[in-house]
């Protein structure tokens, strides 16, 4: 199957001065096929959001800079694209849903105007048809009174409501690739389920690909066909979803899975991974997970393992496996 996106040896550094930087995304490579939903998981601070901002070329408001690698989207390296080309791609072929809805809504424009303009950029619909489509999508993301919301400005909406409007806007242009960064974290479970359902439906109807960034493995199990696990700026494991849950090979993945609450198990205190993600400016010399890993040996503290195949479709970065 055809690759829609290929990320190759991506490195993103954050510069505090010309000479001093820390590496937030370190030699990350993966691909997304057409119509596939890939989960990108890991605790916060592991580089998931920076990876997605790097793909979208949206690092400009940060001290971050891509210093190596390629981002091949539909056969073109986005790192060579001009600002204008990137604007076109982002408005049409790739959309992103952020944790923070206000960053993608225009505060000075009513919702109807923003949505209708967006829809008409990508479809031959008339204004009236686009307005109807906007109302439809708003009701699909669980907004009870779309006509009222359409007349509002963003500041008139509650946080949860603006989150849903942003999701509706991203879906309305039917992008080839949707990057969703913790899209439903702030919403209650019912709305969350509705929105995930909707994303899945659009993905199936339109063959959209989704990169779903989340720390919620329940969402991953529900939505994704393949999972990439990141730790401290690097990919540590990659596998099809069933394989990852049945046979997680990296101790970090094992810890994440062990922390998922099991429904009806009566377990209230969850085993979580002790310690925390290392600071970017103080990365361990060997395996980055070594300070938290119960299997760590002297070699783990000294030398970095590579990401290598451990099965037909599974990759793992751990000395225990090779
Ligand atoms: Fe743990 Fe060593 Fe594997 Fe790192 S390489 S995850 S420290 S066993
Ligand atoms: Mg994040």
Overview of the structural elements:
- With 322 residues, this protein is an alpha/beta fold.
- The chain folds into two domains: 238 residues, Rossmann fold; 74 residues, no CATH class.
- The protein has eleven helices and twelve strands.
- Strands 6-7-8-3-9-10-12-11 form an eight-stranded mixed sheet, with helices on both faces. A four-stranded antiparallel sheet has the order 2-1-4-5, covered by helices on one side.
- α4 packs across α6.
- The longest helix has 18 residues.
- It is globular.
- The two termini are 29 Å apart.
- The structure holds iron/sulfur cluster and magnesium ion.
- Iron/sulfur cluster binds next to loops.
What is the CATH-assigned architecture of the largest domain?
3-Layer(aba) Sandwich
User: How many structural domains?
Assistant: 2
What's the CATH class label of the largest domain?
Answer: Alpha Beta
* Low-confidence regions: none
Helix count, per DSSP?
11
CATH superfamily of the largest domain: P-loop containing nucleotide triphosphate hydrolases
- β-strand percent reads 15-25%
CATH fold label of the largest domain: Rossmann fold
Query: Overall pLDDT, averaged?
Result: 91
State the secondary-structure class: alpha/beta
């Amino acid at each position: 199957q055809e690759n829609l996106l290929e990320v190759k040896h991506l490195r993103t550094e954050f510069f505090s001065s010309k000479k001093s930087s820390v590496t937030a995304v370190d030699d990350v490579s993966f691909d997304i096929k057409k119509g596939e939903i890939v989960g990108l998981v890991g605790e916060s601070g592991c580089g998931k959001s920076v990876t997605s901002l790097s793909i979208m070329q949206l690092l400009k408001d940060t001290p971050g800079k891509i210093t190596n690698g390629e981002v091949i989207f539909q056969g073109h390296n986005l790192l060579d694209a001009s600002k204008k080309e990137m604007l076109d791609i982002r408005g049409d072929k790739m959309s992103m849903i952020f944790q923070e809805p206000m960053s993608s809504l225009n505060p000075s424009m009513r919702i109807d105007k923003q949505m209708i303009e967006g829809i008409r950029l990508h479809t031959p619909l008339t204004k009236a048809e686009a307005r109807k489509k906007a109302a439809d999508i708003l009701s699909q993301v669980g907004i009870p009174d779309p006509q009222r919301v359409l007349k509002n400005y963003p500041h008139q909406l509650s946080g949860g409501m603006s989150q849903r409007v942003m999701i509706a806007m991203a879906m309305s242009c039917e992008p080839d690739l949707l990057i969703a960064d913790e899209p439903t974290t702030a919403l209650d479970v019912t709305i969350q389920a509705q929105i995930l359902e909707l994303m899945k439906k659009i993905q199936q109807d339109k063959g959209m690909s989704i990169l779903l960034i989340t720390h919620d493995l329940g969402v991953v199990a529900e939505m994704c066909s393949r999972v990439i696990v990141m730790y401290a700026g690097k990919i540590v494991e990659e596998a099809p979803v069933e394989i990852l849950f049945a046979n997680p090979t990296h101790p970090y993945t094992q810890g994440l899975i062990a922390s998922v609450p099991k429904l009806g198990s009566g377990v209230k205190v969850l085993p979580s991974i002790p310690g925390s993600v290392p600071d970017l400016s103080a990365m361990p010399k060997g395996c980055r997970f070594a300070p938290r890993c119960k299997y760590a040996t002297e070699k783990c503290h000294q030398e970095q393992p590579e990401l290598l195949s451990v099965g037909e479709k599974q990759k793992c970065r751990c000395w225990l496996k090779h």
